[in-house]
Amino acid sequence: MHGTKALQLKPHSDEQQEILQKAKQYCEQTGNRFTPSREKIYKLLLQADGSIGAYDLLDKLKQTDSKAKPPTVYRALDFFLHVGLAHKVESTNTFKACRHFDCAHPVQFLICDYCGDVREIQSKGIRDTLEAQAKQHEFKIKTQTIEAHGICQRCQS
Amino acid sequence: MHGTKALQLKPHSDEQQEILQKAKQYCEQTGNRFTPSREKIYKLLLQADGSIGAYDLLDKLKQTDSKAKPPTVYRALDFFLHVGLAHKVESTNTFKACRHFDCAHPVQFLICDYCGDVREIQSKGIRDTLEAQAKQHEFKIKTQTIEAHGICQRCQS
DNA sequence: AAGAACATAGTTATTTAATAACTTGTTCAC
DNA sequence: GTGAACAAGTTATTAAATAACTATGTTCTT
User: Fold this and answer.
1) Best residue in B114, B145, B149 to probe A by mutation, most A CBs within 10 Å?
2) The pLDDT value given to residue A103
3) Is the CB of B67 under 7 A from strand C?
């Protein structure tokens, strides 16, 4: 599932610490509680390469919290999705921590089928093109799911 | 789940007959077998409003084929997806018969969260915009999943 | 026509993904 | 401090998809 991990996040990296702090702040500002349970699960989500399935996340959680059960992770995930701290990758039923949750634009994913990496991009162009198409059909868009599968740059060599 | 069905396909309509015939022809031309089992399931897929889940499809199939089981429908669905006779809607885990399977372009869906209607559109613009974005990241796209949720024209009033 | 090779379908069981429903514990405002 | 609201624990179930094995059918070859 994974090629070289040179550019992937490592557990407890500085970048993760930074995102974690921003997540805490963001929750405080918006009146949402970043509880210990949520923090623990959010850390695991940040440590995951690419995206991670709910049950894989549960397995990781069980290593330090042996009595964790599906609702434990699904509740946290639902919370993250709701406040914008994470996204669901619909085509693989997996989840990914959002790295710039402070902006509410729809996102797109580039999913490498070789190494499993999931890159989150934000193209206003894609969003607007879809929006324009929908308008032609008099369709009012609420949410967008845009996911491309293929091979990432690092796996092409 | 459903509003007015005025524009929806009705069982055994002329349009369905036409698509069915085209599907048969298409399979012959491409050396794929459109077996009785596949035909039965494809008809049910055509009759479904919007998109339909595999197990809802199974329930319908059971009405005339009481011993049908999950692999029965999943095998047919896999075949349809493989040859291009149907699409999977990833964000709802449902399936939809393709109305223009003779062209291989990626498609986009406009999914009405109010009536459940799923409209298949083909915008070269969206495809190309995503393609261009991917290129900037040196990502080679194989397949695209583009789904918009919202409210369709008929349900806005 | 017989038989090998392959595709299709039947059958049983299991895995994976997600949620329902009820109970217990925390937090926070008044 | 009490109670409303939120969060988490617990048990069970539903929903989605596939694995693995058996049986049947189709096609191709000789």
Assistant:
1) B145
2) 65
3) yes
